[in-house]
Amino acid sequence: MQQPIHDRRGPAAPTPALRLDARRLTLLAALAAATLALLVRAGGGRATFAALAGLDARLLIVAATIHYAGFALRGHRWQLLLAALGHRLGYLYTTGVLLSGWFFSALLPARAGDALRVAALRMPPPSQPAVPVADSLGTIVLERTLDILAILILSAGFGLGVLGARLPGWLVGVYAAALLILALAGAVMVWTPALLARIRAGSTRPLWQRALDFARQVAESLRRLPRRPGLAALVMGESLLIWLCDALLLWLVVASLGQGLSLPAAGFAALTVDIFAAVPLTPGGMGQVETAYAALLALLAQPGIAIPAAVLATRAISYWSFLLVSGGAVLATGLGRWIASPAALSASDLTSDLTPDLTPDLRQE
Length: 365
Prior knowledge:
This protein is mostly helical. The protein has 15 helices and two strands. The chain has one domain. The protein has a two-stranded parallel ribbon with strand order 1-2.
């Protein structure tokens, strides 16, 4: 009987680390200051501050609560996806790891938080079972797929309701490209097992065989959800609610400024921003998200809306306040020990023993 991964690594196993040093934090602070300064300047300076001073705190609290509720749903969705692969983890632990991943992604480029989530489940505390890298990676890929599908459904629905035939051609192209990506992903998921079987004969080297076995495990984890239509419908419904929270956030923020913006218009703007933020060019999409928000609100041409103030208040909740909340999750889960200045996340720590359950299969070949 094989021991769990974290037991086989032994007490002297190195702790992976993500680089978050003073230089990086200084650059992030400079980027944030530049973004804020440009927004305030675009809003006329004093006019922006006057609009922010008149915010309705009650509506802001409701907006923040809804935003945080979306992340609570994210934690439950991830718990369900892991359970579908046979990994029954507690809700608080799963959600804590997810929030910690968001914290790191908000401060580091290239969604480094996803790597942390995979590593955290593979090398958990003694009270939690270990999850193979292939399975945790598969659930994150499923999350991304569900997110893209939910965003497309909501954004296109709101966009057609608000703009109708005036929907910009470039945005229709973005929708088409996203649908094409989903279709290609579905085709890959269907054809991957047969493709792996054909290319396995290309080499008998152990590393090659292990890589193929790892790819097969990931593909198998992706194929399990469609086999359970009830669960698939549940997580799809949760995905729609998760992203509807973004629409409600912008809608309530604009209302807190004493200004009018219909829910469909707010939903179209917020979810289209989410499409452009799917691949963040900066940590947390800083600057990128604010620019997209301002451009889309201007596209809607809603009279009387203080666009810079609306963008600043929305990001204050969705990024800055949640940075504090997710930072608390990092401390609560103990993942703060993975922050170090000189080291990067060790790829060897993640890739060693990826497919321990397939070792007997390799010996039989």
